[in-house]
Write a structure and sequence with these properties.
- Helix content is about 0%, strand content about 55%.
- With about 120 residues, the protein is mainly beta.
- The radius of gyration is 13 Å and the shape is globular.
- The termini are far apart.
């Protein structure tokens, strides 16, 4: 089981970035794929998630209207389109997966850094 996140970078306030999470080694049927982030000195927080089969998204309030999660069932990837970025979006972003019935995400990828300058 492997999750590989990519696409981070350094951008200015108001810019856009697109993160991608590539999954391999397991079937994503009935899984939920999520994006989390952790800023220095802060706890890791849930950003958004999507159910693999139905593509149903959920977002934390602070990113609603700015971030969009999507999945590609052919490429086995989950993308996070981030628009109107703010300095407070600066963090290491991680993708993770859990079985739909699980309470905890139990598969994690490495982080990709997003830095938004003011």
């Amino acid at each position: 089981v492997q999750l590989q996140a990519s696409g981070g970078g350094l951008v200015q306030t108001g810019s856009s970035l697109r993160l991608s999470c590539a999954a391999s080694g397991f079937s994503l049927d009935y899984y939920v794929i999520g994006w989390f982030r952790q800023a220095p000195g802060k706890e890791r927080e849930f950003v958004t998630g999507i159910t693999w089969n139905l593509g149903t998204p959920t977002y934390t309030d602070s990113v609603k209207g700015r971030f969009t999660i999507s999945r590609d069932r052919v490429k086995n990837t989950v993308d996070l389109q981030m628009n109107s970025l703010k300095p407070e979006d600066t963090a290491a972003y991680y993708c993770a997966a859990k079985a739909g019935s699980a309470r905890q995400y139990n598969y994690w990828g490495q982080g990709t850094q997003v830095t938004v300058s003011s």
